[in-house]
Amino acid sequence: MITKILVPTDGSETAGKSVKYAIGLAKQMGSTITLLAVVDDRFFMAQSIPNEATSTRLIEPVGDYLRQAAEAYLEKASKQCEKGGIQSKKVIRHGHPAEEIVKEAEKSKADLIIMGSHGRTALQAALLGSVTFGVIHKDTKIPVLVVRK
Question: From 119's CA, which of 3, 15, 126, 133 has a CA 20 to 30 Å away?
Fold first, then answer.
């Protein structure tokens, strides 16, 4: 029985498709959804976003900007769940996306991870670093349902 579904989202069209799919499945199964955003802060230090690109028109650290973006797309997904009558919670984690997704799935005792894929080949995923590929190949017993682009 699937009672808890984890849905990682990055605000992309493909991630939005996986949220819709998860809502449909959650309705059928009577499940709850945990919406997860991971801020990958491994590659930046004290960089700033130019004031024209920010909502506040002030220079702000990249980490703050990425967190605000993550909060915005989690809120959008949460509203979709609410509209569909599905109970959800929002979680933001920092670190390597594939690792943080698996950690959150285990922490929240998810029965299923539903995530989008951009349809890269295994070679492209290895070269470009596909998050979906990374989650599938992590050492976890939690099933992963991949929603294609």
Answer: 3
CATH number of domain containing 76: 3.40.50.620
Domain of 98 in residue numbering reads as 4-148
Q: What tens digit of pLDDT does each residue of 44-67 get?
A: 554 555 656 656 555 556 777 788
DSSP 18-52: HHHHHHHHHHHHT-EEEEEEEE--SS-SS-EE-GG
Number of domains in the chain: 1
pTM: predicted TM-score of the whole model, two decimal places: 0.83
The three-state DSSP-derived secondary structure of 98-141 is HHHHHHHHHHCCCCEEEEEECCCCHHHHHHHCCHHHHHHCCCCC
DSSP string, 57-75: SS-EEHHHHHHHHHHHHHH
Q: Are strands 144-148 and 112-117 parallel, antiparallel or unpaired?
A: parallel
